[in-house]
Write a structure and sequence with these properties.
The complex is a heterodimer of chains A (676) and B (452). In chain A, helix 14 crosses helix 15. With 676 residues, chain A is of the alpha/beta class. Chain A is built from 21 helices and 34 strands. Among the domains of chain A are: 308-426, Hexapeptide repeat proteins (UDP N-Acetylglucosamine Acyltransferase, domain 1), CATH 2.160.10; 501-668, Serine Threonine Protein Phosphatase 5, Tetratricopeptide repeat (Alpha Horseshoe), CATH 1.25.40. In chain A, strands 16, 17, 19, 20, 22, 23, 25, 27, 29, 30, 32, 33 and 34 form a 13-stranded mixed β-sheet that branches. In chain B, 23% of the residues lie in helices and 27% in strands. The radius of gyration of chain B is 25 Å and the shape is elongated. The chains are: A alpha/beta (676), B alpha/beta (452). At the A-B interface, strand 11 and strand 12 of A face strand 11, helix 6 and strand 12 of B. Chain A: InterPro entries: ARM-type_fold, eIF-2B_epsilon_N, eIF2B_epsilon, LbH_EIF2B3/5, NTP_transferase_dom, Nucleotide-diphossugar_trans, Trimer_LpxA-like_sf, W2_domain. Chain A: Residues 1-10 have a biased composition (Low complexity).
Chain lengths: 676, 452
Amino acid sequence: MAARGSAKRGAGAGGARGSEPQEEPPPPLQAVLVADSFNRRFFPISKDRPRALLPMANVAMIDYTLEFLTATGVEETFVFCCWKSAEIKEHLQRSKWCRHTSPNTVRFVTSDLYRSLGDVLRDVDAKSLVRSDFILVTGDVVSNLNVSRALEEHKLRRKMEKNVSVMTMIFKESSPGHHARCKEDDIVIAMDSATNRVLHYQRTQGLKRFRFPMSLFQNSIENVEVRHDLLDCHISICSPQVSSAHQRILNSIGVASLILGNQIHMHVTTEEYGAHICNLLMYEAVCSDIIRRWVYPLTPEMNFTDDKNQSYTHSKHNIYRGVDVSLGHGSMLKENVLIGQGTVIGSNCSIMNSVIGQNCRIGNEVMLDGAFLWDGVHIADNVQIQHSVICDEVEVKEKVKLKPHCVLSSQVVVGPDITLSEGTVISLHPPDEEEEDDDQFSDDSGVNKEESKVKLKGTSISGSMLLGRPAMLSEEESESDSDLSMGSEEPDSRAASPQLDDIKVFQNEVLGTLQRGEEENISCDNLVLEINSLKYAYNISLSEMMQVLSKVILEFPLQQLDANLDSQNYFSALLPLLKNWTPLFKNYIKRSSDHLNALFAIEEFFLEHDSLCTSIAKVLMTFYQLEILEEDVILNWFSLRDTSDKGKQLRKNQRLQKFIQWLEEAEEESSDGDQD
Amino acid sequence: MEFQAVVMAAGGGSRMTDLTSSIPKPLLPVGNRPLLWYPLNLLERAGFEEVIVITRKEIQKMLNLDTKMKLDFVYISDNVDMGTADSLRHIHQKIKTDVLVLSCDLITDVDLYKVVDLFRTHDATLSMLMKKAHEPTEVAPGQKGKKKPVEQRDFIGVDDTGKRLLFMANEADLDEELVIKRSILQKHPRMHIRTGLMDAHLYCLKKYVVDFLVENRTITSLRSELIPHLVRKQFSVPTSLQQGVDNKDEGRKKKEQASLDIYSFIKEDNSLLKPAPDNSCWNDHRGDMNETLHEGKVRCYVHIMKEGLCCRVNTLALYIEANRQVPKLLLNLGLEEPLVHGTAQITDRGMVGSDSIIGSSTQIGEKTSIKHSIIGSACTIKDKVKITNCIIMNSVTIEEGCCLQGSVICNNAVIEKGADIKDCLIGSDQRLETKAKHVNEVIVGTEQLMEI
């Protein structure tokens, strides 16, 4: 393994050097590794362990990512941590990456303030960490790619087109239905097949129809190719300016990047492996790919982390055994099984397609199929587990049956003698109060909040984060012209929760765009284009768009004013903004329902900020004067009956009533005028 | 007989009325042959022996074609406005097999087998011919300086092999977005969306499509209605399969509707041929173990010509372009007839360019030079005339010292001494006075001048 790895490394570096023989040697290849996902797809598992440290085939995810970077010739890696940064740091300091012999120097950057990838990139720029083109990955990428070809292509493009290309994204070809393609991260791309330029990037999110803006086809591009056979590896080669000006394009590729004079290109690999573990489905898929040796040379027996506890022997049918594994009489390891060091398995067990961590105890007559057991798990006799994830130090008592897609997070104790229905998630952590999308977590299910080991009997939480692949795959078969309704095909809540996430992220992105627009005086037309592309990237509907936009703009002055919240100050700060961004509103407010949506968002904002209540009339007046909102709609909104008590309170505001009265009179006058 | 060929020659040429007001479109001379000769010749070269020609009565009277094929003329009365689909429906009783439909204004040197073979290998419902449209190099007379009208573009989606037709839409039908169904991409994850392709209006259609047309009287045009319908139907489920647990009443209703569904017209092959695709080791897709032919009973294919000649004569600009291209085509066809007709009397042979065509009994005087031009029969061209890039139809008289450039001159026109004409269209029976000077004009009918 070591010989192979270094050979590859040498080839990668040599190739890069060989391309420009006369010039001075290129600067060392750098990478930015973001060890945080900024979402909660692994909750509650990620509560105990950051995602980057989750074990994949008994090795932390981040080790795969670092191995990939090192093998591809990276000499300096910046690891950005946010959630549980201390644990990540500690893990890496113990690993081979921080030894003197490591060809890849790992540096840490930690901050609790990062909220998105954009924040990280802004920081990269602020600290001017990178000097040349760099590789950007997240800490949950498993890959055996050699990026040197993509890197050369990228550099060549940058040379030819004078730095218009800011980024090369790497995709893996895999046809629809491939098991490593999960619906959540499924994408459709429009590209220029002559230049490999990405023209449009859209997440599918269960849509039946994909929409491509006509502007894609207006250009001189003769052959636009629409591709649905790509898997986004979440590996990209970026130019330094990606971090300076246009961070947002990472999430919203499309019109914006074209207009700003930047282009994004792509590189498609067919042979190599690359995957981004964005949820438990991908966790399962990638884990089994590792065991089935698709990620060669990153296979368990290679022990690439150089950890003495991780030595395995590989035998046929992809059975991997660690040191000191004992297997009871009559137990069968059928195929694709990885067993960690010090694990003891009882007699007459049947195990297949599973990963078992270190120092686990498994009783007699246990059946495991597609089970992912982490370290120190205790499983008693007669247990059956299918397609589930069992975290550290869980205890599963006798005769427990786990139906597919269950998750037991660390230190949970289950049983004895119960059956957990499909998709059960059990955790010692109470669901977060602030997390509104987890409202199906039932309070009366007896979640024990004590951290000590307590026997939990049948604690069940039906969560939003389940392994649910079979349902997803069977869905597509019954396509028809008449388009069966979507709702019936998605029985569970999975589709809903990522969308909520998306709106939040989208809101942040819009805020960021506007901030930048304010700072750099970007024209409204360009802002509209950027927001439009964001809209496509997150699949935001027009009505959501309107609400988000109103909310963001209304909240905008709050950040500048900070503490001294005063309606007078607030309004004077808001007024110039509104005037500036009038075209923005006009672009999105077209139908009367949009007007109403905007009004609802305004109402919601003022309900949340009681102290500013007095300025609502002024704000509405401004909207009216700027011809963003029409009087009929304002009157219509005001007279809506079915509002909450608070809303009624708001409507009793004196100034507001005066304003409405004024509007009514004005309308009467104007209608009188019409009659004459 | 595998195919019946149908040539649609009833259209009026509504996009080039300046020309077609005096000469019906199928009779417009291109390279001194009527336009209709070209599709018929294409069929003859491919080995057809019989052709059904749908046309109007007066056209057939004037038509004088030398062809060995048996032409079966079907007339359409003058006062009925029939679309192409209507015409096909009109003759459906004559249709016994799959059909090859083509328009009378197609001039191409395509190997017809390429289109037909697509149809055969994939057992397709439809196969058609397209070519990358080239920008007209020269502007039509009377149009110079005018802004070209923005044409509605067609969006054509083909699969990775470039043969399967997956998607078709016209800009006019789209709002600001192009919408592609997920189910198509699921089956064909790589789709190339091409714009700037010209449809040659050459279609191979299964017999059952004609049956379907007979039942569906609402469809009037092949190009704008039937073809997009077929392309869309490739990826939908037959209504007969959609009915499931419906109660009886609804079931009956649906059955009535189902009779209008294309799928109900698809006939099973006869028993001998049916197992053939299943037993062969060939299939038209890879990566799975599905049936030999890609799923879906309706399959549309397109042959996109990469090179060669393919143009449709439906505007004045294209008419001029076609005339420019045709001498090359006629040479390649190896016809016995030389470009300069034997009965033409030419005084200075050296002054006639090799890419010019001169018709029978035409007289050309001294010191007259003819370049890149086509001159019809029975014309009289006097001395010291310069003709460049012109199309001159039959019985035209051009007197001494004229200078003609880039113009089209219709039958029986007379151009008197010393006229200087550039980029003009001169209609039939027009007489231009001595030393007349015209640039970029359309002169037709009763002295009516088109605005420039």
